[in-house]
Amino acid sequence: MSKLDSVVKDIAAEMRQRPDRGTVADYIPELAHVDPNAFGLAVADAEGELACGGDADLPFSIQSISKVFTLTLALGMVGDRLWQRVGREPSGTPFNSIVQLERERGIPRNPFINAGAIAVTDVILSGHQPREALGEILRFMQFLADDPSITIDRAVAASEDRTGFRNRALANYMKSFGVLENPVDFTLGVYFHHCAIAMTCRQLALAGRFLAHQGRNPATGLSVVQPERARRINAIMLTCGHYDGSGEFAYRVGLPGKSGVGGGILAIAPGAASIAVWSPGLDASGNSHLGRIALEMLTRRMGWSIFGG
Ligand code: GLN
Q: Which residues does substrate bind (predicted)?
């Protein structure tokens, strides 16, 4: 067994025993049914090894982790013009906050808070039917993970659509400033559905590989984005990927990362690994509680923090 494999298995075993598991999100009713004791970890390293522990093959709702991939797609479509519609500064506010939009004329602070991700989704949607835009996003995930079996959990999407009053408020507010081009219901429909993509830790770790390797998938040698773009996406993940918990995540884990309220985190160790962890219980900022602790242990034991040692 390699060092990586034994570290991953150790962490998964230890996490299963911990009593402190955080709180499963229930504002999307369908997510409240998820087993709080689930824990999965998968690490795809630079040598092509994939180390898995715990429930690494159970699919979960990736939720806001999808925002990394919609950002990548939107940058591919419109390049730096994207930054006219969304900023790239940390917000210091919760993921679903509306306060900053009033001060900044409807321009969201960054692509990873809900308002920002809705604006990015609107960019991807322009010139397409919602079904086409959604298909594009799903196919991109399948391509990156090299796995055509990845699907959208329609029950989760419908559940969020029924209860997504806050996101409707954010979208309508941005629309009033002219920041969204498409009908609000179309944009939100695509947004709710890409958040409801279900993936396993194994699939997610594979999908993130291009961010760890200067924009290239190391298994196929295919370039997904230019090195500069991968570097910049990682920078935004580091500064904004955990909302108002981004500073704490950088302090403790020391890697670019993106969380979702499904309890998943995608973390990138540049040059070394793409890491996916899943534990459904969340902390007060809406980030996976044990997911963060597991990543802290992993980076310490592998020496992967971008800040050294
Ligand atoms: N779909 C969720 C929402 O919009 C995503 C939030 C999250 O994962 N932080 O509320």
A: 64, 114, 160, 167, 191, 243, 261
pLDDT band at 153 (very low <50, low <70, confident <90, very high): very high
Q: Which mutation among 64, 160, 240, 282 tests ligand 1's pocket best, with the greatest number of atoms within 8 A of CB?
A: 64
Q: Determine whether 261 is an active site residue.
A: yes
Has 167 been labeled as part of a binding site? yes
**Nearest protein Cα to ligand 1, atom 4:** 114
Task: Note if 191 is an active site residue.
Answer: yes
Which tokens hold the place of 256?
Answer: 């670019």
Q: Which of 159, 184, 191, 253 is catalytic?
A: 191
Q: What is the C-alpha to C-alpha distance for residues 238 and 305, in angstroms, rounded to an integer?
A: 12
Is the domain spanning 3-58+200-302 CATH 3.40.710.10? The answer is yes
pLDDT digits (tens, 9 = 90+) for 2-60: 999 999 999 999 999 999 999 999 999 999 999 999 999 999 999 999 999 999 999 99
Candidate CATH numbers 3.30.565.10, 3.40.50.1370, 3.40.710.10, 3.40.50.300; the one for domain 64-197: 3.40.710.10
The total of other beta-carbon atoms located within 10 Å of residue 54's CB is: 23
What pTM was computed for the model? 0.98
Indicate if ipTM > 0.85: yes
Per-residue pLDDT, averaged over 207-215, amounts to: 98
φ, ψ dihedrals at 12, nearest 5°: -60, -40
Range 113-132 average pLDDT: 98
Distance 47 CA to ligand 1 centre (A): 33
CATH 3.40.710.10 intervals, the chain: 3-58+200-302, 64-197
* Helix, strand counts (H, E) of the chain: 13, 10
